[in-house]
Amino acid sequence: MSTPAATAAATTGTGKVRAMDKFKNLGLQLKEKAQIYMEANPEKVEEMKAQAFETLRKKIDEEAEKEEAMKLALEADGKKISKGEQFKAKAVGVLQPQIEKLAEKQQQVVAEQTAAATAASDTGFVDPETTTTTDDDDETPTATPTDESSRGGCASSTAAVAPSSTSTLSESVPASLSTEQNLVSKNGVTSAYRLASGYEMPVMAYGTFRSSAGEVYNCVLEAIKAGYRHFDCAHIYGNEQEIGKAFHSAFSEGIVTREELFITGKLWNSDHDVMIVEQAMDHSLSNLQLDYFDLYLIHFPVAWTHTGIATPGWGQSQLGDTPLIDTWRELERCVTLKKVRSIGVSNYPLLLLHDLVTQARVPVSCNQIETHVYYTRESLVKYCLSRHICVTAHSPLGGGKANEEQYTHLTSPLEDPVVVAIATAHNITPAQVCLRFLLQRGIVVLPKSSQVLRMKENRQTVVADPTMHLSEEEMQQLHGLDKYQSYKTNPNPLASFVGGPDCFTQEGTDIFD
Ligand SMILES: NC(=O)c1ccc[n+]([C@@H]2O[C@H](COP(=O)([O-])OP(=O)(O)OC[C@H]3O[C@@H](n4cnc5c(N)ncnc54)[C@H](OP(=O)(O)O)[C@@H]3O)[C@@H](O)[C@H]2O)c1
C-alpha cells in the first residue's frame, strides 16, 4: 500500500520525467530550427565559425604569451629552469643573448685574422718551408696548444688558393684570407690550422673509421706515441668506447694530456632532432671519457628519423623533418654550454654550405669532405678557404685498398702510375705523395692506418723534410688525375634508403644528389 509520501514522490518523479521530455523536445525543435537556419544561411554560418576560431586562436596566443612571460620571469629571477623549459625557452630567445655574445667574440677573431691576412697578403706570403720564421710566429697561441713534436712542414706558397680576383665572393671574409694565413707556423714548420673559432687544429689527424673493435685501442695508443695529436672520431664508427679507453690510458699514464689532443666527434644522421643533438653529443663524450669536444661536426647534411641514441640508424632509413639549420642552432647552443669548442660540418656540398654560412651565428669552422687526387673538388675547397672554413680531407688516400674492395671498381690512387712515378722520383711512398698533394693545398689530412709503420710513414709528411716537397709541376700533374666523381669512399648512404619509404629509385637515393 502506498503512503502519501510515496505517492507524492512518484508524482514528483513523473513530473520530472515530463519536464525533461519537454526540454528534450524543445531542444530537438531548436536543433531542427538551427538546421533549417544553417541551410538557409550558409554564409552566416561560415562567419560564425570563423569568429569562433578567431576567439579560440586569440586565447591560445594569450596562453602562450603568458607561458613565455613566465619563463622569462623565471630566468630573470635567476632560478634554474628545467631542460624541457630550456628547449621551449630558447624558441623565444632566452638563450639568444648568450649565443649572440659568443658569435660576436668568434666574429672578432675572424676580423682580427682578416686584418692580419690582409697585411700579410700586402707584404707577400712567406713560405714556412724556406724560412725559419713566418708572420704567424708572433701570433698569440690559442686555447688548444699543439705539441712541439707534432709540428710539421706542410705549407708552401703553392697553396695560394684564393686569389684576390675572387674577392667579390665574400663580404665578410676577403678571399685574401687563404689557408696560408691560417696556418700556424713556428721555426719554419707548420703544425696547425687556426680555425674561425680561434682554436688551433693540428694539420695531421689519425682517422678512426674502420678501425675495428679489438684493434682500435692499440691503434690509438700507438698513434699517440707516434706523435698524432688530432683524432677524428664519429659515433657511427661504433668504436668510441674503445677509443675512450685508449685516451684514458694515455692520460693516466702521462703520455699526453687532454689539452694536448684535438678530438673531433660527429653527429649522426638519425640524431638531428633538436631534442636529441645535445644528448647525442653527451653520449659520445661519455663513450670517449671526455668532457668536451674540440670540434663537433654534422656528419652528413641529411636528417633521418631518430632510431635511438645507442642504435644509430642505418638501412631502410627514412628522411626526418628537422631542418639542417635547427640542428646547427643546437650545436651553437652546445658551444655556449662548453661541451664543444668549435663546430662544423662534413660532406656538405658548396651550395648547402653557403646556405649555412649565411645563417650561422657561431662561425662554421670546418667542412670535412672526401678529397684526394682522384677527387680534387677545387671549387668547394676554394669556397671554404674564401670563408675561413678549414677543409679536412677524409679518405685522403682514396680509402686505400679498403675502398677499392668495398665501394668502387676503380683502382686505388696509391697505384696510379703518376702517383707512383712522383713517389719514385722523391724516394717517398705513394701514400706520402697523396698526403703532400693535400697538405700543400692547405688541406688538413686524416689518414687511417692500423699499422704502426704506416702511421709513421703518413705522419712523416708533416715533418720538415725538403725531399717531401712537391714541385708546382708535380702538383699540376696530380691535379690532372681528378676524375670529377666521388670515389664513393664513404659507406655512401645510397643503399641505405633501399626498401625504405624514401627510396625513390631502385638503387636508392644518393646523399650527394
Ligand atoms: N666524414 C666522413 O663521412 C668520413 C668518411 C670516411 C672517412 N672519414 C674519416 O677519414 C679517415 C680516413 O678515411 P679512410 O679510412 O676511409 O681512408 P684513407 O685514410 O684514405 O685510407 C685508409 C686505407 O688505406 C690504407 N693505408 C693507410 N696508410 C697507408 C699507407 N701508408 N700505404 C698504403 N696503404 C695505407 C689503410 O690500411 P691499413 O689500416 O691496413 O694500413 C686503409 O685500408 C677515416 O678513418 C675517418 O676518420 C670520414
Task: Using brief descriptors, characterize the structure shown.
513 residues, alpha/beta, three-stranded antiparallel beta sheet, 44% helix
Would you write up a description of this structure?
The chain has 513 residues and is α/β, with parallel strands linked by helices. The protein has a domain at 179-497: TIM Barrel, CATH 3.20.20. The protein is built from 16 helices and 11 strands. An 8-stranded parallel β-sheet has the order 4-5-6-7-8-9-10-11. Strands 1-2-3 form a 3-stranded antiparallel β-sheet. Helix 7 (240-252) links the parallel strand 5 (230-232) and strand 6. Helix 6 crosses helix 7 and helix 7 (240-252) packs across helix 8. It is elongated and about 110 Å long. The N and C termini lie far apart (92 Å). 43% of the residues are buried. Bound molecules: NADP nicotinamide-adenine-dinucleotide phosphate (NAP). NADP nicotinamide-adenine-dinucleotide phosphate is lined by residues 207-210, 232, 299, 346-347, 368, 394-402, 414, 429, 431, 446-451, 454, 457-458, 489-490.
Question: What's the short story on this structure?
Answer:
This protein is α/β, with parallel strands linked by helices. The protein is 44% helix and 10% strand.
Ordered list of secondary-structure elements with their pairings:
Elements: H1 4-40, H2 42-76, H3 83-91, H4 96-123, H5 179-182, E1 183-186, E2 189-194, E3 200-202, E4 206-207, H6 216-225, E5 230-232, H7 240-252, E6 262-267, H8 274-288, E7 293-298, H9 324-336, E8 340-346, H10 350-357, E9 366-370, H11 378-386, E10 390-394, H12 400-406, H13 417-426, H14 430-439, E11 444-445, H15 452-459, H16 472-479
Parallel strand pairs: 4-5, 5-6, 6-7, 7-8, 8-9, 9-10, 10-11
Antiparallel strand pairs: 1-2, 2-3
